[in-house]
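The instructor's notes for this session suggest beginning with a concrete chain rather than abstract definitions. Hand out the sequence below and ask the class to guess, before any prediction is shown, which regions might be ordered.
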Amino acid sequence: MRKIFRSILLLSALLAINCACVLPSNNIRMLPDDIDPESLSRLPMIHKGDLDAEGRRIFEFIMGTETDTPNIGPAAVSLYNPKVAEGMQMLNQEVRYRSVIGRRYTEVAILVASREFDQQYEWSMHEDAARTEGVPGVVIDTIKYNRDVAEMSKEESLIIRFGRQILREHRLDTEVFAEAVALFGRRGTFELAAIMGDYVMAAIMLHAVDQHLAADRPALLPINE
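After discussion, reveal the predicted structure:
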């Protein structure tokens, strides 16, 4: 009887080992057939060595001199035309870091643009940045879950309504424009539109190449909500 019992235990152990060998790991991510495993997009990565002298200058302007491989995302995609990449970098650095509306409200504008285009990569890279800049969770969740604006500053309410109307209705009411000028001034209102425009451009590019997140980056945007 004991021999039979030991045989059953041994058989169970062997079956468990066999199952563990054939079951797929949860850490293995299946990418679509047209996605390059290095760039995680439809376009293979362009390395610094692939570029001519002018292209290498632009590469180093964007990525620095310590690497030959660009970060995945808009920078890597834009290097297919280095002159475009240079212009995009200059625009992004100006509107993201030097706008008169300030870093907190800039990140709110970025999230609005990302959400209106359901751009997972862009949103997931900026949600934490918004929190770091002091954007309240209620504001982030209002944008993320397409909720009505409430319980937030007048500036953040304005930015959300400004972006939603332009990007959904392709127009902006006189009253909303006047409210933006009252809060941010004429330059700030222009820059608010420029910030959203910059990230809408990036969102279109990222959708075109089906940019995926790195495996260690969680997808934070509920696309279907």
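Then share the key points. The chain has a mean pLDDT of 90. The longest helix spans residues 174-208.
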